[in-house]
């Protein structure tokens, strides 16, 4: 069996050590004679898996006790609806910093449901090549929360600061962040946020699970008219098991958390690796006249590196030869074109080295 280097933006690469352990436990989990995916979510065995997974995540991120951790379904996209349903139950408006496609989708969904929305800042003016300056943020007088996307997966734009969610009247509101593509890529101060959410299929685990970290004081404000499966308080009270959760994705995510703790040495060590990987690739792009990246240096994503060739007519040839070389899923998103290398936690440093070598060889041949 040959495993290639997978640069997919999601569902993304998983650590080999995690896949190997899951393979070994697939048919018989710890001598129980059945697979985790066959277990009742109410069984003692799965409850133990769920509890360890949450404990490991809390340790990795240093999650304070006044936060609940929810393991949900529906992807980050469902949170675009669940957030205003839960946080605007007592009125006010949702405020947004919009820096790309996913931020736009969050705003669009809230508006579609009839909620009041306010654009606190946008990177439209620079073509989404730089994050708005923090002093440019302008919250509405009725802001109930401030939402932003910390890393735009498609455009490769990452915040270099944590926004200050305060209205002109001095009232602080919950800061809400979509961290789908950069959560667990390095240390994080959870206490700065009211809600953090992330689809699993990038740095957490396989598709099908959504992680939501929500502060206690943010919950309990949803009207009784929303579905019970959308109510953070009801979900927290039920331990994320109002209905049957995605048990196997939950289990695999737990294995990823253990890998981060035991094999990598925690998020500070992971951050150093990620910084090194990204710096290598950006340095290779910047040193070339054949490749380019449009993002302001301070806002270049560590996780998603878009780049374009000087001659777009060579795109298909580049992708074909990259695939033949075992460098998979480098095609950029259909909305922006070009190339994109996603360097999530499970993408090894040698994959980046192989990509850089391929890019140099391709440039020499075609440049």
Strand order of the largest sheet: 2-10-9-8-5-3-4
CATH architecture descriptor name of the largest domain: 3-Layer(aba) Sandwich
- Determine Rg (CA atoms, Å): 21 Å
The percent range for strand residues is 15-25%
* Helix-strand category: alpha/beta
Tally of individual helices:
9
Q: Main sheet, how many strands, which sense, barrel?
A: 7 strands, mixed
Give the number of DSSP strands.
Answer: 14
How many domain modules?
Answer: 2
Outline type: globular
Question: Overall pLDDT, averaged?
Answer: 96
- Helix and strand run: EHHEHEHEEEEEEEHHHEEHEEH
CATH class of the largest domain reads: Alpha Beta
Structure description:
The chain has 367 residues and is an alpha/beta fold. The chain folds into two domains: 17-262, Aspartate Aminotransferase, domain 2 (3-Layer(aba) Sandwich), CATH 3.40.640.10; 266-366, Aspartate Aminotransferase, domain 1. Helix content is 34%, strand content 16%. It has nine helices and 14 strands. A seven-stranded mixed beta sheet has the order 2-10-9-8-5-3-4. It is globular.
């Amino acid at each position: 069996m040959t495993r290639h280097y997978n640069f997919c933006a999601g569902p993304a690469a998983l650590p080999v050590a995690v896949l190997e352990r899951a393979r070994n436990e697939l048919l018989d989990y710890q001598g129980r004679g059945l697979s985790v995916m066959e277990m009742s979510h109410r069984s003692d065995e799965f409850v133990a898996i769920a509890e360890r997974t949450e404990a490991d995540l809390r340790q990795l991120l240093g999650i304070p006790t006044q936060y609940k951790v929810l393991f949900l379904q529906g992807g980050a996209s469902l949170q675009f609806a669940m957030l205003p349903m839960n946080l605007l139950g007592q009125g006010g408006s949702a405020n947004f910093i919009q820096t790309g496609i996913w931020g736009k989708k969050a705003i669009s969904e809230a508006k579609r449901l009839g909620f009041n929305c306010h654009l606190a800042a946008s990177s439209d003016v620079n073509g989404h090549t730089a994050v708005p300056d923090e002093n440019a943020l302008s919250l509405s007088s009725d802001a109930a929360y401030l939402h932003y996307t910390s890393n735009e997966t498609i455009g490769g734009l990452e915040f270099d600061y944590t926004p200050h969610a305060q209205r002109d009247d001095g009232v602080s509101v919950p800061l809400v962040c979509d961290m789908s593509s950069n959560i667990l890529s390095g240390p994080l101060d959870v206490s700065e946020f009211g809600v953090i959410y992330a689809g699993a299929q990038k740095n957490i685990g396989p598709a099908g699970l959504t992680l939501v970290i929500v502060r206690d004081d943010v919950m309990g404000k949803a009207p009784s008219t929303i579905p019970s499966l959308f109510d953070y308080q009801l979900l927290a009270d039920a331990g994320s098991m109002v209905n049957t959760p995605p048990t196997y994705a939950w289990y695999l995510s737990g294995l990823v958390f253990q890998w981060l703790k035991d094999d990598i040495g925690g998020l500070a060590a992971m951050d150093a690796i990620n910084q090194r990987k990204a710096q290598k690739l950006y340095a290779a792009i910047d040193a070339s006249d054949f490749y380019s990246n449009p993002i302001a240096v301070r806002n270049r994503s560590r996780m998603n590196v878009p780049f374009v060739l000087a001659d777009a007519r060579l795109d298909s040839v580049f992708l074909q030869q990259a695939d033949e070389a075992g460098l998979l899923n480098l095609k950029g998103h259909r909305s922006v074109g070009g190339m994109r290398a996603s360097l999530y936690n499970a993408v090894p440093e040698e994959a980046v080295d192989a990509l850089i070598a391929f890019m140099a060889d391709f440039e020499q041949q075609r440049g």
